[in-house]
Amino acid sequence: MDKLMDNPWFIKILALLMAVLLYSAVPNSGGKTTEINVPGENTTETLADIPVKAYYDTENLVVSGIPDTVEVTIQGPMPHVQSAKALKNFEVFVDLTNAKIGNQKVKFEVSGLSEKLKATIEPSSLTVAIQEKVTTEFSVEAEFNSELIKDGYAAGQPSVKPKMVKITGAKDVIDRITYVKAALGGRDLLESTVSKEVQVQVLDKEFNKLNVVVEPATVEVTIPIKRNEKTVPINILEKGTPPAGVTIESIGLDVSEAVISGGEDVLKDTDSVRVEVDVSKISENTTITLPVIISNGITKVTPETVQVTVVVKKEEETTVSGIPINIRGLSEQYEAVISDPSNQLVNLLVFGPGAASKVLGPNNFNIFVDLTGFTEGNHNVPIQVNGPSDVNWKPDKSSAKITITRDNA
Question: Burial level of 74, CB count in 10 A (0-12/13-18/19+)?
Fold first, then answer.
C-alpha cells in the first residue's frame, strides 16, 4: 500500500472516482417538479365581543349610540378564517370625521382583514347622536347614612375636597344634571371623625346615573364626629331622717357640675344629675364617695363618682314632761274628752344645743289637737306641737283618742 500511495497516478484515479460518487449523490435540480393545486375548504365563524372604534373630533363632540362591541361573521378559506379568529388582528370602526351635530346614520367598517375574507356585521349600520361637548364646573355635596353614627355622638357639617369638579358631556346631558354627590359608604358605626376617598356620582332629578366624565373622578369626604355633651349641675338629694340628736348642717360636693353625653333629644330634656345621700346612716362628720345618678338615655357622665362631705351637729337630749293637750277648732255644739292619754299630758324629748334645751319647760311648748270639722264619735287625732325654733322635739305619743259628744246644755 505504501508503494501505491506514493504513485501519483494512483492518487489521481482515486480522486476521480470520489468525484463521480459525490456527483451521483446530489439530486438533479435540472428536472421539472409538477405541482397540483387542490382548492382549500371555505368556512364561516362568528366572533363575539369585537371592540368598536369611533373616529371623530373628540375635543369638541360627544357621540352616543355606538355599542362598545359587536359580533362579526367572517367567511373564507379555513386557514385565513382560523388565523383571524385567533389573532383578531382587524378593526371594526365607524368613521365620523366629517360628522355634524345631530342624528345621522353610519355604517360599520372593517380594516386589517385579509382580502380573501368577507366580514358581515349585524346590523351593518346604526343611527348615532352627535352633540356638542360641554365642560361645566359643579359643587359636590357630601352624603352619608346618619344611622351609622353611634349613639351619644353627632356628626358635624361634612366637607369635600376639592369642593368643585369639572363635568364633561353632551350638552343635553349636562343640562339634566341635578345632583352631584359623593356618598360615604360603610357598615361600621362611627364614633370619630372619618375621611375617605369617594367616587363622584352625577344624577338627574330622578336619581338616574348620567354618562359624563368627571374630573377628578374621586374626592375626599370628611365627616367630623364628636360626642354629644352638655354640662349640668349636680343636685344633692337627701334620703331618710338623721338619727335622733343629729342635725345635718351641710352637705358639700368636691365637684358641682358634670358633663353628660347622649342623644340630642335626651340632652335637651336633661337639666341636672343627682347624688343621693342617705342621712339616716350618718351620725358623724364624714366624707364618702357616691355615684352620680343619671336618667335613662344618658350614655355617659363625667365624673362618674363624687366626694360628698357631710357636716353634722350633735344635739343634747332633754325631756320636758307633763305638757297638757289643748283642744282647738271644736264646734260649740259639741264636747270633747281625751281618753288617751288618760291624763291628757304629753312628754317631749327635746334636742338642741345644751344651753338652749336645758332651760326649756312645759310653758315653752304648746301641744294641741285640731278638731275642726269633727263630729260626734270616737276619733284618733294627730298631736301637734309648737315650740322654739332653735330646737327639735319628738312627743312620746303621736296621736290622741278623742270622744266627741253633743253638748246638751
Answer: buried
**Strand intervals (E) in 224-304:** 225-227, 229-239, 246-253, 257-262, 273-278, 286-291, 298-302
CATH number of 140-227: 2.170.120.40
Whether the CA torsion 281, 285, 287, 293 is positive or negative: it is: positive
**3-class SS at 264?**
helix
Report DSSP state, residue 243.
P
Peptide bond into 224 cis (omega under 30): no
pLDDT confidence of residue 308: 95
Give residue 251's pLDDT: 93
| CATH number corresponding to 42-132 | 2.170.120.30
Homologous superfamily of domain range 229-314: YbbR-like domain (2.170.120.40)
pLDDT of residue 204: 94
Cell readout for 190 is: 362611627
C-alpha distances (whole Å) from 149 to each of 251, 263, 298 are 40, 11, 16
* Residue type at position 55: Y
Q: What pLDDT is stored for residue 186 in this prediction?
A: 77
77 preceded by a cis bond (ω within 30 of 0): no
Number of helical H runs and strand E runs in the chain: 6, 33
The C-alpha cell that represents 388 in the structure block: 322654739
DSSP letter at 31?
Answer: S
Locus of grid cell 393545486? 37
The pTM is what? Answer: 0.46
Q: Give CA–CA dist 182/98, Å, rounded.
A: 38
Q: What is the pLDDT of residue 64?
A: 85
CA distance 197 to 351: 76
Which of 120, 116, 118 minimizes the C-alpha distance to 39?
116
Query: Domain spans of the chain?
Result: 42-132, 140-227, 229-314, 316-406
CB of 265 closer than 8 Å to CB of 293: no
Residues of the chain with pLDDT under 50: none
Match 357622665 to its residue by C-alpha cell: 301
105-to-53, 101, 109, 127 alpha-carbon distances in Å: 16, 12, 13, 4
In angstroms, rounded to a whole number, what is the distance separating the alpha carbons of residues 88 and 166? 37
Domain boundaries 316-406, corresponding CATH code: 2.170.120.30
Q: Supply the pLDDT for residue 38.
A: 64
